[in-house]
Amino acid sequence: MKNVFTGVLILNLIVEFGAAFALISASLGGVGVEDPMSATVWSRSYGFGALAIGSAVIWIWPHRDNYAVVSTVLGMLMVFHIGVTISFGVVGGQLAVGGLHAVLSVLMVTMYVLRGKWCEKPAG
Length: 124
Fold this sequence. Notes:
Layout: H1 2-26, H2 39-54, H3 56-60, H4 67-91, H5 95-114
């Protein structure tokens, strides 16, 4: 089960680093940067947010069997992916991206429910 969890984190890394690269590089043209509400500024900001979310696997790596750490990281990833799924559902369009976040949401919730199978629960 720990290997499945690691695979889910690596999938999250690949998806979010890909999104970060696409969003940040697409906004490097500088168009609309003078307007703080422009799509360019929002795209770049989300790109760096995706970079942070994708990096979860790097920070958790030595602690993948620590119940408290796994619970915290999975909680953060659940909220992120569920929120993005809802956002794409409300706005509409980009079905593939919304679907990918929906799949990641289900994976994160599943890993959260099953985390006791590879993590030692704290005493008490």
